[in-house]
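Hello forum,

I keep getting stuck at the same step: I have a sequence, I want structure tokens, and every attempt I make locally crashes halfway through. Rather than fight my setup again tonight, could one of you with a working pipeline run this one for me? It's a single chain of 434 residues.
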Amino acid sequence: MNNAKLNASKVLKLLFWAFTAAFLIGAFLASDRSDMFAGLGRLLNYPAQVTKDSFLIGGVSGTFLNAALVGAVCCLLMCIPGFSANGTTAIAYLLTVGFCFWGMNILNILPCMAGAFLYAAVRREKMSSAVNFAMFATGLAPLVTEMFLRYPSPDTIHGYTAVSVCLGIFIGLLIGFLTAVGCGHAPNVHKGYSIYSAALPIGMLGFLLRALLYNTLGNTVPEIKAELSGGFPVICNTFCVVLFVLCAAAGFWLNGKSFRGYGKLLMDPCHKVDFSAKFSPALALMNVGFYGLIIMLYYNLIGATWTGVTIGVVFCMLATGVSGSTPLNIIPIMIGYWLMSFPGATDINAQAIVVGLCFASGLTPVVGQYGSIVGIFAGALHYSLVTSVPAMHGGFVFYNGGFTCCLLCIVIIPILEKFLKSKSERLEAKAAKT
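Reply #2:
Ran it on my machine without issues. Output:
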């Protein structure tokens, strides 16, 4: 098939609908499907502060149904006239559905999303301009659930009341509105070297709201405590491997039944890039498939427990597969994590580190521009920092590792720019000589 005839936006939207359909199919195929709707109900009535394994709370079927519903909402937003899906949309969608496996639900996303559209209305901008912001704003959805169910007491779940619902909606609207304000400025802070750019305003906003709602008002922040299931390795591996193989196969077919051009994509500096626009949607889809398989291989090699959180971070990690991450440039980050686990106090397959590696993938532009050695050091530093950040925001920010990624870039990028030449600079210098 001729790549020139492919419309990147249409291909990406079809991909998102396909993922959403896969979640729904997974819900009906799960062995506990008779508990599907009851499981969804439990998810809607349980605190979402990270890290809460949705498999433990809502069961496998209820969790997949929740992911399908959230994915459908995201896809319907993309149907707003004038909206065009791109690499940023891929990040937003895959992060949002990934979080459904460890805290996000169909209720706590709605006020956040509405806040982003409120921003567009106040600014008199097209509603289509707020779609990506709306999905990114859900990164603070656990705080909305906290307002709904148990604020201000961390020990008592009072459930949905008129006051708590109003408070949750207000906080959600505020989150969505301010996320839309901050997202446009975030790339300037880290110069585009963190793919999870939205994590910076979300993380800072989480820090601000935690301080205001808890410290300032004299309330106690709920204990940050992981609640995890025993894992479902067969279900998780089967679902993901089948889905990723289909992605790679579809990309191969759309690319004229060839790998033509994929080698060039793998060698790209991957800084501020959208593979679907720079190369083709077929190659971007192919990369998503192969990248997903590498993620699955890594987590199986280190012996990760296949909880809902783990499968969730697989999709969160996959989010960067259209915007800079490849099966090659993620390897130095993985090596950095693995090496740091030897002197580190936390095992490489611990849930917190499994989640951390997911968001360390946002550093792949650093690898693309400054090489594998720098990437290994960046991965090691991310391992060291990622478990220290949750205390800043009270465990209410899904983008904890992405926020860490942005903070790390703020520190290391000025140093790299002073002492090393990037790949782009070397190519420019070579072109100037010839």
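Residues 354 and 364 are 17 Å apart (CA to CA). If your local run keeps crashing, start a new thread with the error log.
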